[in-house]
Amino acid sequence: MTAFRSEAVRVLVPASSANVGPGFDSAGLALAVYDELIAMVTDDEGVLVEVAGEGADEVPRDEQHLVVAAMRTAFAAMGQQPTGFVLRCRNAIPHGRGLGSSAAAIIGGMVLARAMVAEESGIAMSDEELLSLATTMESHPDNLSAALHGGFTIAWLDDAGSPGCVRMNAHPDLRAVLAVPTETLPTLDARRVLPASVSYADAVHNVSRSALLVHAMTRQPDLLWEAMSDRLHQPARSDAYPEASALVASLRAAGVPAAISGAGPSVIAVTDRAEDFGRMHDTVASLSGAAQKDASRWRVHDLAISEVGARECPIDSP
Question: Has domain 175-304 been given CATH number 3.40.1390.20?
Fold first, then answer.
């Protein structure tokens, strides 16, 4: 009996914003922007990769592609490596902008590989096992957890380095307002500027705001401005994305609960107020100056929170 399904398999995986203000390497929020992955096992050796959308001109088309690497890792963990497969990626998540594109590729690829193994084979991989495997490819589980489970997640690594996470439903009135720049910032570059130690006062500040963040995100959105205050990672990275830092400062001065999304340089406001979308537009325009070419360096989006994580979907569904 073959271990693989013969038909094509389709998976959708959401973007995510990590850190969510003070929740460095722990808080994640899934966003309603999805990469689409379709794959099918073949009898031909190797892989055939097609990519459209975000990053299509920048990613490899072979075993080095991150989705392919994640699929191979998951197949190996299940003890079932296909001779070959074709993979089609339709990317909507911007790359290198703090929106979890690499986490989506890793989680999406592993969920895809898991779905390609036939149920009657008796081979299974739980979500807990999948998340643990994913952290061998990306060491911080915040984006990974949000991409896998959707909603608002808190993730951690235990003393042995194994991940855990809890998922909560974000408050139903919340939206994510995003300002996404044309510039990119590799996550590794953003992590290199982080300090080796922080002050006691800054640590206490972030501990209290991180605890408040859970309450504000799920029950009381009017506390989000205070809950998204951070003194650990954003100040240390301000020179890496000065325009984004200025945008966050201007938005917060106007009462908008804004922060850098993930490692940046995108800016996110998590809010229950429709007028904050207009505030984001106006603030981007005022900081960019009058020249249209400067203002066009940013794209502003009003997004729902994705309450679902990576999942298999019928091929013909939207």
Answer: no
